[in-house]
Write a structure and sequence with these properties.
single chain, alpha/beta, four-stranded antiparallel β-sheet, elongated, RNA-binding
RNA sequence: GGGAGCAUAGCUCAGUUGGUUUAGAGCAUCUGCCUUACAAGCAGAGGGUCCGCGGUUCGAGCCCGUGUGCUCCCA
């Protein structure tokens, strides 16, 4: 079969993925092998594959594929989470397009539309992962609102309520005025925002001079309950205990004192609006101030505001500033930048709001979860995230778990008309409880309208994907849990990682995973985060179509050290594509030999084979150790260089027979074996091209995907050293040819002056071929009419047909000599230092002495050469 | 305001309890090659005050202090 000029991934990718699926290689059931389990961080059902997913899932696939080849029973579980807020927003948008408003629908009607949406779009992202080559056990695909999963979430809520961990309470929450729901602190993104600081005059009762208050939120003055000053502030001491009037509405409010106020900020006088600011609320409680909520839930002003009722808060800010100015209440405005909270989902400014919500008390549940990480029962990679984790866990606040949404797990609380409630798994149980608790039989009950925070379901993920709670102690969960490695982004360390550890310890009495690998954030090549608004997120599927899945995986992995951000550059994908072609072309070369294999000719490549075998073993061991430390990027670089440099540039050139010459069968077979091993080493990173090569190299019955690694013997250093000497010698002599402009086809005569003649004799064949000599000789004397060069400790005399320019050889030698003299003197300085000799370890001193003698002998060789040049 | 991390070649990064060659790789650059696997390639080369300053040490890219710059997290 004629092989194409370049590697063409498009058809190959699809062919192998279907083949692997047909063979059920990714399917796992418990057996007597050791399991290696990863649960995928479930992407939102609303998601489409982006660079973050690509990085994250490529890493998981690398770990899983490698573990599979190492003989583990690997199980990688896919799934999606229902993403309350995001999905509800998508469904509302879909309804709007059809001319339906959410408010016109019943809960059940709305939910049936939501399921319709989920069935249609919810699996897209998982399909996209197949294109990346992810070896997931698709039969285990889980959704956080599957029947069993749903029931488990409800069960956990009831259980934690009964334990007193969950409670209902009125507190300040973050209100999303667009999604009309509470948000947890973690769902609020703080952004530097340019604002204005308005200096407002409040008239003081019984005084001619007003008090000036600085605020960024003039639209909330109608909710003011007090003005607060620092008790030590001399400017305001005469006002203590007096009253002021809120501008425009003229409400009378007290002037109070509290040390909370910063005297230096603004005017030192703070307006207190307990309903609309977290700190003001605390102050209000302390001083028993009135709470006046001047907003509706959608961010417009309420009746309580008296003016601007029904108008949006930001519209009011503009309008009221004008009115205040016209009426003489606005003294001045100044530019002011501070951090403002925005909703992670809807990007609107979050409104602090007093609200009755469900809370999860975190303190007790967090303590053991902190301990497992600090004591490294769960290991974090890179370990710097331990600090981040500890800081959050030690300052943890209660978790607001209710959301004013329909799409999600409905809170299992049941109310009667009097507002009394019970928490139970279903209405039947609730009625029984009502009877026992309140003595009311067959009460008319209504279930809570709200649903739970999405993270309240995904924190059960590592065991509930195996039905660990809905079907306790089943064979799967007992076998696969605890899982091995969690791969995730550091920005959900609190949202998800911490809470999974808590849930695992609470419900399984065991950690959910043994190690957590935190990936970096994918940024563009200018270092900016990828975002829709910047339009700097590449079209991932487009890239896969263009470069192939392997090149995409290569591109994203080659520059992504653990825990560091990666700057994504399409050039890295090109490098991946070029690497594919390199491999492809090496195959083409070997294929050319297929008809010319002969066992009759002498195997004159013994050294090349011996060397590459050992080099391969050396690198395999290096890769093992890197993989254990999650240095995936370095492991890939190492394999890349082994294939491109050692295998293609050196080994294949060394063994390559002359044009249309036969190849020794042993050399050929060994080469096929090496190529196979290389493909296996690379397979976890680039699964498609390697599987294709595996089958192209020779007829096979098995597949690379499930081939087990063979243990490599420890490498022999002597051979590796001779290999390096050979490479250095070839490079050095090529440099001479290059600089002397000796044409590649022109042969040279080479005379070597060395104390290690037998070593050179072992590699003479290769050397001769690589630098195109007509003759290699050994000498102890200068060779007349030659160009002299020094490589290592040995001297080489190059003789060409055309006399060559020896003018610049002196300069080259002198440069080398100067370097060595400088180096020698730095070594001698050390050795002449008495304190060094006294304090340094013997092996360090021995090493320095070796450096010294090496440098001295090299210097002598060069000096001799220079002396002869005159 | 509190805390964390980072700073090494033009770019992206290695540099493993301080000694391994007066610092390594990939990409980019330059020079020469369309050499029968590969020009998406081959062969070679150049390129660094390891952010500044101070300290510890016989010895510092690595440890300590300090300054500067960038990034992130929390309030």
């Amino acid at each position: 079969m004629e092989l194409s000029k370049n590697f063409e991934p498009q058809s190959i990718d699809h062919k192998w993925y279907s083949h692997w699926l047909n063979k059920a290689y990714f399917k796992s059931t418990p057996d007597d092998r050791t399991p290696y389990t990863i649960v995928m961080p479930p992407p939102n059902v609303t998601g489409v594959l982006h660079m973050g997913h690509c990085l994250n899932n490529t890493i998981q696939d690398i770990l899983i594929r490698r573990a599979r080849m190492m003989g583990y029973n690997t199980c990688w579980v896919p799934g999606t989470d229902h993403a309350s807020i995001a999905t509800e927003a998508k469904v509302v948008a879909m309804l709007r397009e059809r001319g339906i408003t959410k408010s016109s629908l019943s809960r059940d009607e709305f939910l049936s539309y939501a399921w319709e949406w989920k069935e249609k779009y919810g699996g897209i992202i998982l399909q996209q992962l197949k294109k990346l080559g992810c070896s997931l056990d698709w039969d285990r695909t889980t959704f956080t609102m599957d029947k069993d999963y749903y029931d488990s979430v409800i069960k956990v809520f009831v259980d934690l309520y009964q334990k007193g961990v969950i409670y209902r309470g009125k507190r300040m929450i973050n209100w999303d005025v667009k999604a009309l729901t509470a948000l947890s602190d973690e769902e609020v993104i703080r952004k530097e925002t340019k604002q204005k600081l308005y200096h407002l005059k409040y008239t003081v009762e019984g005084s001619d001079s007003p008090i000036i208050v600085a605020t960024v939120r003039p639209e909330t003055i109608m909710g003011d309950s007090a003005i607060c000053v620092h008790p030590e502030d001399e400017r305001y001491k005469h006002l203590h205990g007096k009253f002021a009037f809120v501008p425009l509405i003229n409400r009378r409010i007290p002037i109070i004192t509290d040390e909370y106020v910063t005297m230096e900020f603004g005017t030192g006088a703070l307006k207190v609006t307990p309903a609309h600011d977290v700190n003001d609320y605390a102050l209000g409680e302390k001083h028993q101030l009135e709470v006046i909520d001047v907003f509706n839930d959608n961010g417009t002003l309420s009746e309580a505001a008296q003016i601007y009722v029904g108008m949006d808060r930001f519209e009011v800010r503009k309008k009221i500033a004008v009115e205040l100015e016209e009426k003489g209440f606005l003294l001045k405005t100044e530019e002011y930048t501070s951090e403002v909270g925005y909703s992670e989902r809807t990007d609107v400014v979050v409104e602090p709001r007093l609200s009755l919500q469900w809370w999860l008390s975190m303190k007790d549940i967090a303590t053991p979860a902190l301990k497992t990480v600090m004591e490294e029962e769960i290991k974090f990679y890179p370990p710097k995230f331990k600090n981040v984790y500890r800081h959050w866990m030690e300052n943890i606040k209660d978790w607001c778990i209710s959301r004013q949404l329909w799409w999600g797990h409905r809170i299992p609380a049941w109310y009667d008309n009097e507002g009394r409630f019970v928490v139970a798994e279903n209405e039947f149980e609730a009625k029984k409880l009502f009877e026992s608790q309140y003595g009311i039989s067959n009460a008319s009950l209504k279930q809570d309208e709200d649903c739970l925070d999405t993270w309240f379901s995904s924190w059960l993920w590592p065991f509930e994907v195996f039905k660990g709670l809905s079907n306790p102690n089943n064979a799967d969960v007992n076998y696969y849990y605890p899982t091995n490695t969690l791969v995730t982004a550091p920005d959900i360390i609190f949202f998800w990682v911490a809470r999974m550890i808590m849930a695992g310890l609470e419900y399984k009495k065991e950690i959910p995973f043994k190690e957590v690998y935190f990936t970096g954030t994918v940024r563009d090549k200018l270092g900016r985060k990828m975002s829709k608004s910047l339009g700097n997120s590449p079209d991932l599927l487009g890239l896969i179509d263009q470069y192939g899945a392997d090149a995409t995986r290569f591109g994203i992995m080659i520059a992504s050290p653990a825990g560091n951000d990666i700057l994504f550059d399409e050039a890295a994908l090109e490098q991946g594509r070029n690497f594919n072609n390199k491999i492809w072309n090496a195959l083409k070369l070997i294929k050319m030999w297929e008809g010319r294999i002969s066992s009759d000719i002498v195997n004159d490549n013994l050294f090349a084979i011996k060397w590459f075998e050992i080099r391969l073993a050396e690198v395999s061991l290096e890769v093992d150790s890197m993989m254990q430390q999650f240095r995936l990027s370095e492991a890939l670089k190492t394999i890349y260089s082994l294939i491109w440099d050692d295998f293609c540039s050196w080994y294949l050139e060394w063994i390559k027979p002359g044009f249309e010459q036969p190849i020794n069968s042993e050399v050929y077979n060994k080469t096929i074996g090496f190529f196979t091993d290389l493909m296996q080493l690379l397979h976890p990173f680039m699964p498609f091209v390697t599987e294709e090569m595996y089958h192209q190299l020779t007829e096979r019955k098995d597949d690379l995907c499930t081939k087990l690694y063979e243990i490599k013997a420890a490498p022999d250093n002597t051979v590796l050293q001779i290999g390096s000497l050979l490479k250095d010698t070839i490079s050095g002599l090529r440099d001479v040819r290059n600089k002397q402009q000796v044409k590649p086809k022109e042969t040279i005569k080479l005379f070597i002056q060395t104390e290690n003649q037998s070593t050179y004799q072992e590699i003479e064949n290769i050397l001769s071929k690589q630098v195109n000599t007509s003759e290699i000789g050994y000498t102890q004397e200068t060779v007349a009419g030659s160009f002299t060069t020094v490589i290592g400790k040995d001297k080489f005399y190059v003789v060409t047909e055309q006399p060559i320019d020896t003018g610049n050889q002196k300069a080259g030698l002198e440069k080398e000599l100067n370097h060595l003299i400088g180096f020698l003197s730095s070594v001698e300085k050390k050795l002449n230092n008495e304190k060094f000799v006294q304090n340094a370890k013997p092996e360090v001193i021995a090493l320095e002495q070796k450096k010294k003698s090496d440098a001295e002998s090299k210097i002598k060789v060069i000096e001799d050469a220079l002396a002869l040049l005159g």
